[in-house]
Amino acid sequence: MKEALISWFIENLGGKVGKEMIIFLISMVPILELRGGLLTAGPAFLDVPMWEAIPICIVGNLIPIPFILLLITRIFDWMKGTKRLKPLVEKLEKKAMSKSSNIEKYEFWGLFVFVGIPLPGTGAWTGSLIAALLGIRFRKAFPAIVLGVFLAAFLMTVLSYAVLGGIFV
Description:
With 169 residues, the chain is an all-alpha fold.
């Protein structure tokens, strides 16, 4: 699914906007986030220089986070008041909370590791949603998520540019 989304961005935006805008937008999208942005930026796809791609993907991934942390519970409460959207919200909450045990237990460090280790179902979007649903304060959650995004950037840069770059170049 991630590959299909990345391909969609490249096919539909390629030639219309620069490579940098493509990786910026990919980094903002849930599921793909910085991980998808850096994979797309690497030599296997768009071949954006590493030192250019890293800050673009970090900023793209971080832009939605304050809004999620500060507003998502209010938005979800409003959505639960509608017959059509209530099941969707309940499904999203259930899925997010199924991954929340270590974040709930370790808060800052749990959130940092959850966001920073690039595994399926983890990342800044899900980490922010879980933090908001658990009621973790912004001043504790946001720095943990930022540091987690930096860890993910480091790990994904190694994967995208060193490992895959060595294969595709």
